[in-house]
Design a protein that fits this description.
alpha/beta; about 500 residues; five-stranded mixed sheet; 22 strands; five-stranded parallel sheet; about 35% helix
Length: about 500
């Protein structure tokens, strides 16, 4: 049975610029063939079970030749796999997507194209340069700056100069002097505004502004690195005025988020809204316990009115418990039982089931939850706690100090380490790692055995998480409250302090 190939544009770097369809296709991939220009944040979206094939390509440095990449796509599809060819930017804009289709068409392999956001327009936008503006130009032109070995440029510089529009050169940094020289020889004014935009849409984004005649020298002075694009035209004058991203509080900061995959989006969204580049690397996963006998027994007891309180210590616990409850009963099984949640995240998980917690502690940790809950429980209350098999004892110890309280602690899910792919490589350039539990710290450490963990700067949701990070030599900052908003605030605080020191 034949498989299928999807050519997917990964966008210019910021994972938020990958299309919804691209993400959907990627999540269902069996095999992912990806380039060097695919950003770490996008690589973090590759599902755990998918096999990765690196076909890295930068100018003059090819891990796989194009013919070999084409052959890989064909062979994997013939083996019946769902193959995603993940390409930086858009696969049909100087991405050689058309070449990769030739062999597939020849062998009647099904395929789809998922367009991507091109760096030609996204990167200038992130740098405050509108590629068109009615007061500055009436056209925009995208040109490849790459040329085949031993060949000259097949570019009509005179035609480009006559357009008086915005010129965007992709893959042209190595040939910047030749490109500038060609435009100058074609009659373009030496003082034409120009810019090189380095690592656009990512934390290391940088704008080098100059004129057409001075741009090459300016870039040489600051050692510009790829990926970078060249923009020539009067719109470059607007970069300083419209540089919106530079004004965000976490601009220039790259953050690794380690929450479980099903919970990572909320934290990542908060950080991206503040300007951070976010790499998602779930360090743990939560899975139902293999033997649900005790859980089922507790649910049946609950349905008969055997408990007064139902206590949840994580969003994952809520999801897994209610998935099981609804296979046996419906929400009427709660039968008037009161609900307690350890924090706002767990409360939000309850709300998804149309339920609201009757009790939240003043501080979102197990010790405080147990101490404060026992004060509001009636003497002789029966309490059910469906939670992780490795849950800490503080919650139980505090509840057992109450007046004749009966506590049933049921292992509902296991926590497993879930770091996948080349996790150590994903740490390249990361400024801070965000941890929402001690388990995420342990999972991260287990998944990055070659990493010097003493160089990791950890932002932690609570004191127990910080203690685990410090045990591995990490420098840590702790959120003032155990909420995602406070954790994002802590990243801002840590970034400000670190910039001041360094």
């Amino acid at each position: 049975m034949k498989g299928k190939v999807w050519l997917v544009g990964a966008g210019p770097g910021d994972v938020g610029l990958m299309t919804l369809k691209g993400r959907e296709v990627l999540q269902n991939a069996d095999v992912v063939v990806y380039d060097a220009l695919v950003a770490p944040g996008v690589l973090g979206l590759i599902p755990e079970g998918a096999r990765r094939v690196f076909a890295g390509k930068r100018s003059g440095n090819h891990f796989l030749r194009q013919e070999e990449t084409n052959k890989v796509l064909l062979e994997e599809a013939l083996a019946g796999n769902r193959v995603v060819r993940l390409k930086g930017g858009d696969p049909f804009l100087f991405g050689r997507g058309g070449e990769e289709l030739e062999l597939l068409v020849e062998h009647d392999i099904p395929y789809e194209i998922v367009p991507g956001v091109t760096s030609a327009f996204a990167v200038p936008a992130y740098c405050g340069i509108p590629v068109t503006h009615r007061d500055y130009c009436s056209s925009v032109h995208v040109v490849t700056g790459h040329r085949r070995k031993g060949a000259g440029y097949d570019i009509d510089f005179e035609a480009l100069a006559r357009t008086k529009g915005t010129l965007i050169f992709l893959m042209g940094i190595a040939a910047l002097p030749d490109i500038a020289g060609g435009l100058l020889s074609a009659g373009m004014a030496p003082d034409t505004p120009a810019a090189v935009l380095e690592k656009g849409t990512m934390a290391a984004q940088r704008t080098i502004q100059a004129t057409l005649s001075t741009l090459a020298a300016a870039c040489e002075r600051v050692s510009v690195q790829t990926p970078a694009i060249i923009v020539v035209g009067r719109v470059c004058e607007l970069a300083g005025r419209f540089a919106w991203r530079d004004r965000l509080p976490l601009s220039g900061v790259k953050v690794l988020v380690t929450r479980p995959r099903e919970l990572v989006s909320g934290m990542a969204t908060l950080l991206r809204e503040r300007g951070a580049e976010v790499v998602e690397l779930p360090a743990i996963r939560t899975v139902p316990v293999k033997d649900m006998t005790q859980v089922d027994g507790a649910i049946e007891n609950l349905a008969r009115g055997g408990f007064d309180w139902l206590v949840f210590t994580s969003p994952s616990g809520v999801g897994i418990f209610f998935d099981r409850l609804l296979t046996l009963h419906d929400l009427r099984a709660l039968n008037g039982v009161k609900l307690a949640a350890i924090g706002q995240g767990t409360q939000k998980a309850l709300l998804k089931n149309c339920l609201r917690a009757d009790f939240l502690p003043s501080v979102y940790d197990g010790e405080t939850l147990g101490r404060e809950l026992r004060e509001v429980c009636a003497p002789g209350s029966r309490i059910l706690i469906p939670r992780a098999a490795i849950g800490n004892r503080e919650l139980i110890e505090e509840l057992e100090k109450g007046d004749r309280l009966t506590v049933v602690d049921v292992a509902t899910y296991d926590t497993e380490y879930a770091v996948n792919g080349d996790a150590t490589a994903l740490m390249d350039g990361v400024d801070f790692a965000v941890f929402t539990s001690a388990s995420t710290v342990r999972g991260f450490v287990a998944g990055t055995p070659g990493l010097d963990h003493t160089r990791v700067k950890a932002v932690c949701i609570g004191k127990q998480t910080a203690a685990e990070a410090e045990k591995h030599g990490m420098k840590s900052w702790t959120a003032e409250k155990a909420t995602l908003e406070a954790l994002a605030d802590a990243v801002e605080r840590a970034a400000g302090e670190w910039k001041t020191v360094n």
